[in-house]
Amino acid sequence: MITAYHRPPTMQEALGLIARPTPLTLPLGGGTLLSHGGGEAVEVVDLQALGLDQITEKGNSLEVGGTATLQGLFEHTSSNTAMRKAIKLEAPLNLRNAATVAGTIVSCEGRSTFVTALMALDAKLSMFGVRGGAATDETSLGIGDFLPLRPRGLITKITLPVQAKLAFEYVARTPADKPIVCVALAQWPSGRTRVAVGGFGAAPRLAMDGTEAEGIETAAQNACHDAKDEWGSAEYRMDVAATLARRCLERIAG
Question: Model-level pTM?
Answer without folding.
Answer: 0.94
